[in-house]
Amino acid sequence: MSEFLDRRAFLQAGLRWSLVMPALPGLAAEGAPAPQSTGFSNYGQPAPSERHVIRLIGSNPRMPGNGVSWTPLEALEGILTPSGLHFERHHNGIPEIDPQHFALLIHGMVQQPLRFDLTDLLRYPRQSRALFLECGGNSNAGWHAEPMQKPVGAFHGLVSCSEWTGVPLRLLLAEAGIDPRARWVIATGADTAATEVSLPLAKLQDDALLALYQNGERLRLENGYPLRLILPGWEGVRQIKWLTRLEVTDRPAMSRNETAQYTQLLPDGRARQFDFVMGPKSLITSPSHGQRLPGAGLYEVSGLAWSGHGAVAAVDVSQDGGRHWVPARLEAPVLDRCFTRFRAAWQWDGTPAVLQSRVRDQLGNLQPGRAALIAERGRNGYFHYNAVVSWAVDGDGAVRHVYA
Amino acid sequence: MSEFLDRRAFLQAGLRWSLVMPALPGLAAEGAPAPQSTGFSNYGQPAPSERHVIRLIGSNPRMPGNGVSWTPLEALEGILTPSGLHFERHHNGIPEIDPQHFALLIHGMVQQPLRFDLTDLLRYPRQSRALFLECGGNSNAGWHAEPMQKPVGAFHGLVSCSEWTGVPLRLLLAEAGIDPRARWVIATGADTAATEVSLPLAKLQDDALLALYQNGERLRLENGYPLRLILPGWEGVRQIKWLTRLEVTDRPAMSRNETAQYTQLLPDGRARQFDFVMGPKSLITSPSHGQRLPGAGLYEVSGLAWSGHGAVAAVDVSQDGGRHWVPARLEAPVLDRCFTRFRAAWQWDGTPAVLQSRVRDQLGNLQPGRAALIAERGRNGYFHYNAVVSWAVDGDGAVRHVYA
């Protein structure tokens, strides 16, 4: 009988994994060729045998520099994404900015316009936070009529999680002196598209960071070097890369990326605009599409959960397409607006199953089922797809994406 | 007057940093050359302007493959070290192991010897933990009669911190069935030196991990690909890279790395052996040796603290060489046997100062001053140097290493 095991059974189950080959005489690795030795390096790279683990690029040949690359979530563990595998979404290429000539301008409805070069910014107090960052268009294949048969990273991999370090923006806004009538800030990137978005001033005075570092080292070019705006829990397009200008104002800019794009078309034909917060979402990364279970037995079901509203409170898993749910174990640390890794022990009896996960965040927001999401949002959606993901495990162990 | 500021003053101080240039007309970055645009990449690399941030290699030309590379701690932020900059200490090169031919053998005083290939190991339950990893020989220049004038990474950079993911070793030991008379485990690496150490069985039955992943992706070659033994809080040499054999036994092997090396010679001529746990340690990474403060004013003092005994409980900082101490702020998350980042706001009046930090861990262990360490351990020490580090700030803002 397939079943999820409780924690005590899980520990006892360690004795029943039955995966182990009978012992062989002699030392390990006998018969293997003697390994080559290599030397020290100034900056390490992935192991040669693992260089198939890459971000897959999807770009538009008619619009060079416009496209995405996906984080291969199915190949990764823990909660932090290596910077080399952080997803990309660029509207018009990656500028290579000379840090000596870079400046951030804060102007508009302020008492004193201010200009900061990097030397200035690097002297300010800093804060580090581990935060997920998700493209508003992530998982949009979920709106398709038929379930897409691709690995989890090529479906949901426009989300990554990093430790960002930077200057709390509220310090700089306070120095500039905000006009009490101001309500919005228009943020602009130094890319050739001059990507521009409008942001409520209150968020920028709350927890926004001017990130200079990602995962310990200075930002990568493709993540906004030398300066990226980080808005914990908000959709990626708002977290302007190569940030060079913040204009304080009393109204939004109504730019392309907040009118023609990144809005939610609803069933009645109206569109939801300024939908900033990424909803609660989870998915099982193992087993997941394209894997094949070698046979009945004990498996660890493992995945990622996050919510733009706060910390993850609980993740439940199901093996029968959502009819029954059992709690998964959340692995510490469970941090505010960060990936949380969940794990559950699963005894598979070799008969077909449908694995699902469902997250609830600390504010009580529950990840919706797909039918509920479509009932609310209709079939014309593109952004902010966060429905429960279903993986069918067939009798032969093959795992594929289904709607359930 | 130089002073550390309390938290409330620190927040108000945001308004007094006085680092900001007068606003200039026009947009930011005027006069800068138009940036080049680059495209998507499968695996990202550091920004070209930041490629001076590397691990410095110190190797012995008469013993190829024997040496170290240091993590540039002074250039990094947050608590996690990018894998490409994780320190290295190799005794005889880096083997490039074919994962298809790799196996781990558990044998000796067990009911059933067991052999695991990677496919087996990858099916076991996993655990992820963020942990520091420090070479027993880190900071050994602190024993020198004169303070070494090198950047903090080239002095203390044989320590790094990663999120490790792997299989709890206790599960495998339980499957093998341990003879009740067993007390030790001899662990062997697949490097050409066949590096071998003896480990108390109790630690391996407690929190040891068989790490398959580092910072989300599979191990790098230089960190033990495909399998590394992780022993939270213990010295690096025990955390065998390229782990291929665990022999359960009733006595230690008395191998070279636990007799001739990695022992503590004491003032009375005896040596302390099997000194596994890395003691409480902290250091200020900014300001630190080689930096120059541009003038009197407000600065953030920031650094790292850790202890092999548990979580960091408190870090104090001093500006007068240890006569007065004030608490630094510990940045969340504060995790068991992980780097903790501390920060303090410091008003420098432009007169000479001596900056120090001192950590206390959750078991009450206090980082010793240098005089106390030498009084206990003598002047013949080499390993396990964890004394308070002192940075003199001269009147011209130059920062250098001193003993104080």
Could you give the topology of this structure?
Two copies of one chain form a homodimer.
Chain A: E1 3-4, H1 7-13, E2 21-22, E3 36-38, E4 56-59, E5 67-70, E6 88-90, E7 94-96, E8 103-108, E9 114-117, H2 118-121, E10 127-134, H3 152-156, E11 159-168, H4 169-176, E12 184-189, E13 196-200, H5 201-206, E14 209-214, E15 217-218, E16 228-230, E17 243-249, E18 264-265, E19 271-272, E20 281-286, E21 297-306, E22 312-318, E23 326-327, E24 329-330, E25 340-348, E26 353-361, H6 370-377, E27 390-393, E28 399-402
Parallel strand pairs in A: 8-17
Antiparallel strand pairs in A: 1-25, 4-5, 5-6, 8-9, 10-11, 11-14, 12-13, 12-17, 14-15, 14-16, 18-19, 20-21, 21-25, 22-23, 22-26, 24-25, 26-27, 27-28
Gyration radius of chain A, rounded: 23 Å
Shape of chain A: globular
Number of strands of chain A: 28
Secondary-structure arrangement, i.e. CATH architecture of the largest domain in chain A: Alpha-Beta Complex
Q: Strand percentage of chain A, roughly?
A: 25-35%
CATH-defined superfamily of the largest domain in chain A: Oxidoreductase, molybdopterin-binding domain
> What's the total helix number of chain A?
6
Averaging pLDDT over every residue of chain A, what do you get?
91
CATH class of the largest domain in chain A: Alpha Beta
